[in-house]
Amino acid sequence: MSNSNQVEMNDVQGLILRGYNFPHIRYIILSIKDSAGAKKFCADLASGTGSGGLSITTAEPWENMEKPDYCLNIGFTYSGLETLVGSDNCNVISYYSSDEVFLSFTAGAVSDAGAMGDTGESAPANWWKNGGWIPKEPPGADGSELHIQLTLFTLTPENREKYYATLLNMIAETPSGPAVIPVYYQDSDPITVDGNSDYVHFGYRDSLSQPRIDDILWNKPKIRKLMGVSSIDDRPKVPLDRFVISQDASDYNAHTLLVNGTFAAFRLLYQDEAKFEAFIHSDSTTSPELMAAKMCGRWRDGTPLVVSPDKEDKSLGEPSTKNFNFTNFNYLAPSPNQQGDQTSDELALKCPYAAHIRRANPRDDINVTGNNNNAQTHRILRRASPYGPVYDPDEKPGIQRGLVGLFIGAVLDFQFRFVTKLWLELGGFRNPDASPNSSGVDPLFGPQVADTNPGDFTFSYNKNGTYNQTPNLSRFIRTDGGLYLFLPGITGLKYIAQGTIPPPLS
After folding, report:
1. Are 235 and 327 in contact (CB under 8 A)?
2. Helix 87-95 and helix 78-85, axial crossing angle in degrees, nearest 10
3. pLDDT in tens, 430-444
4. C-alpha 414, offset from chain centre
5. In what helix (H) or strand (E) does residue 15 lie, and over which residues does it extend?
6. What CA–CA distance (Å, rounded) separates 248 from 241?
7. Cα dihedral angle (442, 444, 445, 446), rounded to 10 degrees?
8. Which among 229, 246, 238 is positioned nearest to 210, based on CA atoms?
9. 401 closest CA partner among 264, 126, 128, 200
10. CB-based contact 439:428 (threshold 8 Å)
11. Please, is 147 exposed, middle or buried when counting C-beta atoms within 10 Å of its C-beta (0-12, 13-18, 19+)?
12. Out of 216-230, 275-289, 462-476, 485-499, which region has the weakest mean confidence (pLDDT)?
């Protein structure tokens, strides 16, 4: 793996290297109706010189560290890329890129759905049907008319509408209508609990842990000090080429067009909060808060179970990405600045092997399948946020809520696809496994419809030295939409806008 510090911040899309922390977001999916007009739209977004003046946000620091009025980022499905640069050029990109880098993107999220657990109600045949779809006609079965995904971040709801209107006005008109049309959008607004707006549905504090990317500006001591971020950060540094595609990586090859870009899985995930609340209240011998903590791996305020297995720990301070008391911990041996309980959790007495955050990032647990480097190869950047209203037990059925956004990594096969298939969706992901059901499946997602393993329908966790087994675990999260996206660098976007590609590295 490469740790090159030569990344050009003005050529990398900003959301790849940092979370913006803007409260009001619109996730937009567009369909290309005229390729020439779509190229002009992309060129204007790359340069910022179009009629509306909007441009794709890069990773360059903001002037005086002040947030702009908006941020905007762009991704393309394979069908969108093929529409703009042509099949022959896509074949060249594929030829000069590792299969792990390009083939899953080429196949797309619809064809990959079964392997990712998107079955039953979550199957692609049911995608885009639960609010947000704009045209009268539903998308085709393969989703091939879904070409571009834009994410608009704003500081106010009013600016969201303002800049969205500006964005649409930048699209060229053709005799048959706009060259590009929005076919789906979903808004995200903060969920506030006790005055704090960092919560997601199911009641958990969010935005606590992202990979610590090596050799980028945001991790330099001077910048961290200016941002008010503690320097006491025990998280392993993940090589930059896990998130920004490089031609110097040791374990993959990439065509020149892909350089300084990345890939992402766009996911629209409905959360069935009524079903979730019923499950955490289903065991009269366990408090709902303890059950929720065991399922997630954190108490709802963000306190890690490994640090404080019996209760939320307010002495850790205010949970945030600037306070590493909530992320400085390991499972087998304590990290240098780990707070609270310092004992090893080798036997999952504190945090179940099955807990969501342990499965998504097993940290130093080398007994987990494919984890021999603190999960560095498999880390994912999550740029996702909640949509829909806060749950009300007295509400009418059918309210749509959940999580929407992008799960980012330079190699889908190493990151999103690996974690989803091998760590979240399959039992027995750790050996040895002290739990009675071989960990089962991720309890926040639950078993798939066709799952025949009885242990996957039971949530097992240790309480007071004895394993409890709570039956009737079901699926609490439904996939309502999915895309595999390429997020190009600005140079790559300009090539795409010209309908061509740069020469491969000789």
Report:
1. yes
2. 120
3. 999 988 999 899 999
4. 14
5. helix 14-17
6. 8
7. 70
8. 238
9. 200
10. yes
11. buried
12. 216-230
Q: Rounded CA gap, 334 and 344, in Å? A: 7
Cα separation of 45 and 62, whole Å? 18
232 alpha carbon, distance to own chain's centre: 25
pTM: 0.95
Tell me which residue has tokens 């049907």. 129
Q: Are residues 170 and 50 in contact, defined by beta-carbon separation less than 8 angstroms? A: yes
Query: Which stretches of 194-272 are DSSP H helices?
Result: 221-226
CB 57 within 8 A of CB 72: yes
Confidence band (pLDDT; 50, 70, 90) for 64?
Answer: confident
- Tell me the Cα Rg of the chain: 22
Please name the amino acid found at residue 40.
K
The single residue listed with the structure tokens 């799960």 is: 407
- For residues 18 and 213, give the distance between their C-alpha atoms in angstroms, rounded to a whole number: 10
**Which has more confidence, 222 or 215?**
215
Token pair, residue 434, equals: 């002290």
C-beta separation of 170 from 54 below 8 A: yes
**Residue 55 CA, distance from chain mean position:** 23
DSSP reduced 3-state for 277 = helix
| Token pair listed for 503 | 């020469």
The answer to whether 179 and 186 are in contact (CB under 8 A) is no
Alpha-carbon torsion angle 65, 67, 68, 71, nearest 10: 120
Listed in sequence order, the residues at least 6 apart from 171 whose beta carbon sits closer than 8 Å to its beta carbon are 37, 41, 178, 179, 180, 181
CA-to-CA distance for 319 and 207, rounded, in angstroms? Answer: 9
Rounded to whole angstroms, how far apart are CA atoms 292 and 470? 12
Specify the DSSP class assigned to residue 476.
Answer: -
Average pLDDT, the chain: 93
Report the sign of the C-alpha dihedral through residues 307, 312, 314, 315, in that order.
negative
Helix, strand, coil % over all residues of the chain, rounded to 5 = 30, 20, 50
CA distances from residue 321 to 42, 242, 371 in whole angstroms, order as listed: 33, 20, 24
Give whole-number Cα distances, 499 to 51, 84, 375, 494, in Å: 21, 5, 37, 9
From residue 51, give the alpha-carbon distance in Å to each of 40, 43, 166, 170. 11, 12, 9, 6
CA distance 419 to 412: 10
Name residue 482's beta-bridge partners.
267
Hey, what amino acid is at 292?
Answer: A
- Which residue type, as a one-letter code, is found at position 261? G
d(CA 13, CA 249): 19
Quote the distance between the C-alpha of residue 284 and its chain's center. Answer: 34
Lookup: tokens for 444: 């926040």
One-character DSSP codes across 29-52: EEEES-HHHHHHHHHHHHHS-STT
**Can you tell me whether residue 92 is helix, strand or coil?**
helix
**Which phi and psi angles does 221 have, rounded to 5°?**
-55, -40
Match 């096969």 to its residue by tokens: 413
